[in-house]
Task: structure prediction
Amino acid sequence: MARREKPKGILRLPLFLLIWGIAALAMWLPATHALIRDDHATSRAFFYSGIVGLMMVTFIGLALANRVPRYGMLGQLLSLLGTFSVLPLYLAVPVHETLQSTSYLNAYFDMVSAITTTGADIFSDPARLPASLHLWRAQVGWMGGLLMWIAASAVLAPLSLGGFEVTARGQPGRSARSVPGMEKGDPRRQLMIVTKTLAPLYAGLTLLLWLLLMTTGEQSLTALSHAMSVMATSGISAVGGTDAAQSGFAGELIMFMFMFFALSRLTFSSDTAASGYGRLDRDPEFRIGLFLVFGLPVLMFLRHWVATFEVSGSGDWMQGLQSLWGAMFTVMSFLSTTGFESAEWGAARAWSGLDTPGLILMGLAVIGGGVATTAGGVKLLRVYALYQNGLRDMERLIHPSSISGAVAGNRRLQRDGAFVAWIFFMMFALSLAVIASLLAALGAPFEDALIMAIAALSTTGPLVEIAGSAPIALGQLASGAKLVLCFAMVLGRIETLAFIALLTPNLWRN
Result:
C-alpha cells in the first residue's frame, strides 16, 4: 500500500489560515494604489493592516509547526464558512480606518457582502469612498468569486453539494467518488491542482475584460471594478452602476458576453461535467439560461409594443430596440446574480408607459445561474430537474403504464435528483420566510424585508435598489437587521444543504 504523501511547507497550515494570509497580502494592492494617488492615510490603513494580518498568520503557523492537522472535505467546508463569516472581521479593519465616519458593523457588513459576491451597497453615495477603497471592495468580491470557482470542484463536488447532489451518485454531504480508495486521498492536493488550473484562467478572463472595457473609453478603475464584478457576479461598481459608466452600449455588450460564464461551468471547465453533458450545446443549464435571456426580453418587448400600439397606433422602433437591449442585458445580469442594470432598462418602461415590476428581477435572481459558477440562487440545474420531473408526471397522467424514454444522463434527474432539488427548493423557501420574518420583526417594512431576504439568499445585492418602489437604505437599518442580513448572505453563498452538512458529528469528532 502506497504511503500517503503529506503536505509540505506552508501547505501544512489549515485552509482558513492560508486564505487569511492571501487576504493580508492582497491589502498591499490598494495600499500601493493609494500611495500612487497621494492618499497616504488610506495607504497606511491598508499597508499596516496587511502587516498585522501576516504577523498573526505567521504566529499561528509557528504554533502549529509541530502538529500536522488532518484535512478532510468537511474540514475544508468549515474553512469556507469561516472565510465568509469570520474573515470579514479582518477585512473590515482598513475599511473602518479609512472612512472613520462609519461604524465597524457597517464595514463588516460591506465586507461580508463583497466576499459572498452579494454586492449589497451599504454606502449609497460612491463619492463618499476613496478610489482605493472602491478597488478593495471589487477585489474582495473578485477573490470571493475565485474561491467559489475552486471550491466547487475541490470541495462541493466530492461532497455532492452546491447543486451536484442532483446528478451525483453519493448522498449530500458524503463522498460521491466511485473509484475505490479515492475517498482516502489528500483533499489538499486536489485543492492545489484545481487552484493551479483555474486561477490563471480566472485572472486572464478578468484582465481581458478589463482591457476591452478600457478600449470603449471607460476609466481604468471603473473598468477594473466592473470586470472583477462581472467575473465574480458581485455587482460592485466604483460609480454606482453601469448607467453611470462611460463605456455605453459597447461596454454593456462586452460585459453581456462575459456573463455567459455564470450560466454553466462548461463555458470554462469540464472538471465537474456530469455524464452525458460534456458538450456546452447539450448542457441543460446553458440551454435554459439562453431561453430565459432571449425569450423573456422578447415577451416583454411584445407586451410593450402592444401597449404602445394601443395608445398611439405606431411605435418608435429605435426606442423599441433600445428597450429590447436594456431588457436583455438586465435579465442576463440578474439571472447570473450580478445585478447590473442596463442604462436602457428605463427605456422599456418609458416607451410604453407601463411599469415593469421588480418581481421579474427577483424571480430571475431566485432562479440563479449555473452550478459550480460564481452565481447564486437556486441554480438552473435544480430548475431543470424539477422541469423534467414535471414533464414525466404529466406523461404518466396521460399514459400510466408508459416507460421513460429519457437518455441515461437524465435518469438520475427523474428519480432522486428531482426529489433532492425539491427538498433544496423547500429549504430555500423556508429560509426566505424565516429571514424575511426576522427582518420584519426588527422594524423593516414587509415588502422591504422580502426584497432584502431574496437579495441576500440569492447573493444579488442590487435588488435592494431596483426591485422595490424606492431604494432601500441599508445603512439606516437596525444593528440586528444588519447581522441577520450578514447571516443570510453567508447562508445563501454556501447554501443550506452545505450548512446542514457541517452539523454532522463526524466533523466535530475529528
Observations:
- Residues 256 and 372 are 19 Å apart (CA to CA).
